[in-house]
Every structure is written in structure tokens, then in C-alpha cells.
Specification:
single chain; alpha+beta; 5 helices
Length: 479
């Protein structure tokens, strides 16, 4: 026998044996999607996260694609064989060098391919797959860092207390701003005593998409503190408490919203005012900013100016915010006739200059207001001037009696009086004596023309008689 293979002699005495066997293909796990991992600040084991054996890279499978998508779903290619020395045969070292630099949270798409397709197969859910290439998505979630308390007395930066002491270092940091919102570094704080600052916790630059900071319920997400200079403490000043006057509507005149007890603070220089636009930009202003005419929303910040703080507080310099609004006027579109017979809107005197009119004749031609003719029919349209649209709206009444904003209002009217004399050739009030003089002048001109024509005819007949006489005399002489 040969091993366990028995040899049986045949009829001729020749001993032989036959045995068959099968070589199974190497089975390796196909990559699978996974979303259970979290940012740690360390290199991400993307291959293991996908269920692959890193030791089999370059032996049984190769990496053909690796991408990363951020929170905005923007894709970034991290690996492609085209960047390798031999695009057709990326080396394991080239691939591992790429994988070693992956640390950030995000969604990673990985694609791998069998190297020896005849002898190696992917297994998916216990079943041998039919494809040589598989892809998977690995989601690395943000690290959640929770703040559970703040420690301190408010006379220096606060110290945050974290829910865990195992958070990676150099991931988050204190963020400081002054009361105007300007960023301040920790190193700059020591040179800015007797000032108030805001403090929060934020990700260190480059880690904004890697961590998510949470504050325990009841814990402030932002704190304020005062860099107290014990050798030169600030003086207290009374904090203005009177509110701005209530909101108003556009009247066409200036309106004053200055709080009564803020004016003296501004006049003394202990408080400065800053107007805030719709984009949050600040501009230093004086107290006259509280006096406004045009409709709109207004916001003013009052800040302590100098070595002061609000009385009754622990060196609090928190700015005061004042907001007031002038609403748009609403003008009802009710037509009336003015002293010249033109149709206009019946509006209060303070709103008359907000409206512009346009007149058109029966041919839809625009007619200047001073060219409107008596007895003629026109259409008139009224609208708010472009420069005043922020201040007022025209209102039109619908069939239900409700008044709604309208861009333009229109009406038709006839100018009082007749069209004029001679079918409108002359105005109705054309002076009579001018008509009489004109008629007499016309008659005299016609008589003059008749007489002139008659004289010319008689003169022509006389010339013809003389000419004939001369011809007859000349003929008699010849005979």
C-alpha cells in the first residue's frame, strides 16, 4: 500500500490504485458596512472595521478605492491605484501608508478586489460570493464630549468639568471672546484686566467635524468672567433700567426711542452705543440713533466704557440691548377729486408726498399733469414712490370689504368742462375779442386777395390788347 491507498493486482498481475480529491478555494470575508465606531483621535483600523483581515491585504485581496464623505456629503478620494508606482499592482506598503493617516470621523467608502480570482473567493453571510469586487461603507461617528459643570468664581476663567476623564487630549479647548464678540486667546487675557469676557468650550481647529460638545441639562453653554485687577478695581455705575418706548408706525416725522435713564450715561461717556445691522455688524453711534424717521427694525447695544461695572453685580459689564421698530404706514386707496378736477387718493397730508400718479389718455399715452384737457377722459394710476416703499403700503378694498396691500391702484375720470371751441381746436376760455379780430382779419385778407387777383386779370387783358394792336400796325406797314 501507499499510505492509505491499497494496490489491487489485476488479471495480469499488475498492481494499480486510483484516488480523486478536490482543492477548495481560499475563503475570506467580504467587506461589510459598519456604523458602530467613534472618533478616538487615533488611526482608524478601516480594514478591521469592514471585517477584513489586514494581514491578508496584498496576499488575497487588494484595495482598489477609498473615499471619505464629510457632513455636507462632499466626497474626498483618499486612495486610488492611479497614484501608485505601479497602478496595476499597488504594493501593501503604499496602501498601508494611506491607511495609517486616517483618523477623522466621517463616512468612508472602501472597495476591495480578489487578487487570485480562481483560488480565492469572498464569503458573504456564510455563502461564497460570485463577485471578485466588493464595497462597504464605514461610518465613524463624532466623539460626544459632555460638560457637566463649571468650577470658578467668575473673577478668572472658569474650569469645565467633563463627564469622563478618558476623552482624548488636544481635542477641545476654551474659547474666549470679549463683550464685542472678538476672539481673545488665553495668553492675551493676562494683559486685559478689569474687562469682562465670555467663555465656552469648542473643538480645536481641525477637529470641528470630529467632536460634538454637549452640556448637561441645566449647565450653561457659555459663561462670563471678569479679569479683576485687585490693585485697580473698577467703579460701579447705575445700570439703566428704563425700556425703549413702544414700537410705532411710520408718521413721516422723526420719532424718539431713547430710554430716559440711558441718555445721561451716554453723555457722561461711561457708556458707548453701537448700532447692529441685519448681519450682526456693529457701528459706533451717538444717542441720535434712537431718533428715527423711516420704517424698519433697529437694534442698539450699550456697552460700559472705561473702568466701570453695573452696580449690584459682581463686576458685571454685560452689554445692554435695545430693540425698537417703526412699522410701515397703511394707506387706504380711496379716490377723491382735487380742486383742479383731477382724481387723487384721499390721504392724510403727511402721506401725500409718498404717492406718485400717472395719467393716460384714451390712446394709453402718458399725459403730463399740466396737459390734462377739460372734458377729456383719462385713467389714473397711483403707487408708492420707489424711495418710500419701505415706509408705506397702499391698500385696496376687495369685494368682501377687506383691505389688502396693492402695488398699484387705478381709476378712470373725466376732466370737468367742455373740450373747447370748434371741436376742441380752441380752448373753451379762449378770449372772444381775439376770435372777432381773427375773423375780421381773415375776411380782409380774402378781399385783398380777390382784388389783387382781379387787378392782375385786368392788367393781363390790357397787355394782350396792346400786343394785338402792335401786331396789327406792323402788318399794315408791311402792306
Amino acid at each position: 500500500t501507499l499510505g492509505s491507498m491499497p494496490f489491487q493486482p489485476d488479471a495480469n498481475g499488475i498492481a494499480a490504485s486510483t484516488q480523486a480529491w478536490t482543492i477548495e478555494p481560499k475563503k475570506i470575508n467580504a467587506p461589510k458596512s459598519d456604523a458602530t465606531h467613534e472618533f478616538t483621535g487615533q488611526t482608524l483600523d478601516i480594514l478591521s472595521f469592514a471585517g477584513l483581515d489586514p494581514a491578508e491585504l496584498g496576499v488575497y485581496y487588494k484595495l482598489t478605492g477609498l473615499t471619505k464623505r464629510d457632513q455636507q456629503n462632499n466626497a474626498q478620494t483618499l486612495f486610488t491605484s492611479a497614484t501608485c508606482a505601479d497602478p496595476n499592482n499597488p504594493t501593501p506598503d503604499e496602501v498601508k501608508a494611506i491607511l495609517a493617516g486616517i483618523k477623522d470621523a466621517g463616512r468612508y467608502g472602501i472597495t476591495v478586489e480578489i487578487i487570485d480570482k480562481a483560488n480565492v473567493k469572498f464569503v458573504e453571510n456564510g455563502v461564497i460570493g460570485t463577485l471578485p469586487t466588493y464595497s462597504a461603507q464605514i461610518t465613524v461617528n463624532k466623539l460626544k464630549i459632555q460638560i457637566v459643570d463649571w468650577q470658578g468664581d467668575g473673577n478668572s476663567p472658569w474650569h469645565p468639568s467633563y463627564a469622563s476623564n478618558n476623552y482624548p487630549s488636544n481635542i477641545v479647548e476654551d474659547k474666549f471672546t470679549d463683550m464685542s464678540g472678538n476672539a481673545v486667546t488665553a495668553a492675551e487675557l493676562v494683559n486685559r484686566y478689569n474687562e469682562q469676557f465670555r467663555q465656552t468650550i469648542g473643538a480645536i481647529a481641525g477637529n470641528e467635524e470630529n467632536v460634538e460638545i454637549e452640556f448637561l441639562t441645566g449647565v450653561d453653554s457659555e459663561k462670563t468672567f471678569f479679569m479683576l485687577d485687585m490693585s485697580n478695581p473698577p467703579d460701579p455705575i447705575a445700570k439703566p433700567t428704563s425700556p425703549t418706548p413702544p414700537n410705532s408706525t411710520f408718521t413721516g416725522s422723526d420719532q424718539n426711542f431713547l430710554p430716559s435713564d440711558l441718555e445721561s450715561m451716554v453723555d457722561s461717556g461711561k457708556v458707548k452705543l453701537y448700532a447692529v445691522d441685519e448681519n450682526g455688524n456693529e457701528t459706533e453711534v451717538d444717542k441720535s440713533y434712537f431718533t428715527q424717521k423711516n420704517a424698519g427694525k433697529y437694534k442698539v447695544i450699550a456697552r460700559v466704557n472705561g473702568n466701570y461695572y453695573w452696580t449690584g453685580t459682581t463686576y458685571d459689564q454685560t452689554p445692554l440691548e435695545y430693540e425698537f421698530e417703526i412699522g410701515k404706514a397703511e394707506i387706504k386707496g380711496e379716490w377723491t377729486t382735487d380742486e383742479n378736477g383731477r382724481q387723487t387718493l384721499n390721504v392724510p397730508a403727511e402721506f401725500k408726498d409718498l404717492i406718485e400718479y400717472e395719467y393716460r389718455d384714451k390712446n394709453n399715452k402718458v399725459v403730463p399733469v399740466d396737459k390734462l384737457k377739460k372734458g377729456s377722459t383719462y385713467t389714473v394710476s397711483a403707487k408708492i414712490k420707489e424711495s418710500e416703499k419701505q415706509n408705506a403700503d397702499l391698500l385696496a378694498e376687495d369685494e368682501n370689504g377687506n383691505w389688502n396691500p396693492a402695488e398699484t391702484l387705478g381709476s378712470e375720470f373725466k376732466m370737468p368742462g367742455s373740450e373747447g371751441l370748434f371741436g376742441g381746436l380752441l380752448p373753451e376760455d379762449f378770449p372772444l375779442w381775439q376770435i372777432i379780430v381773427s375773423v375780421i382779419s381773415l375776411i380782409l385778407f380774402i378781399i385783398f386777395m380777390i382784388l389783387t387777383a382781379k387787378n392782375r386779370k385786368e392788367k393781363k387783358e390790357a397787355e394782350e390788347e396792346i400786343k394785338k394792336y402792335r401786331e396789327d400796325m406792323a402788318q399794315a406797314d408791311d402792306e
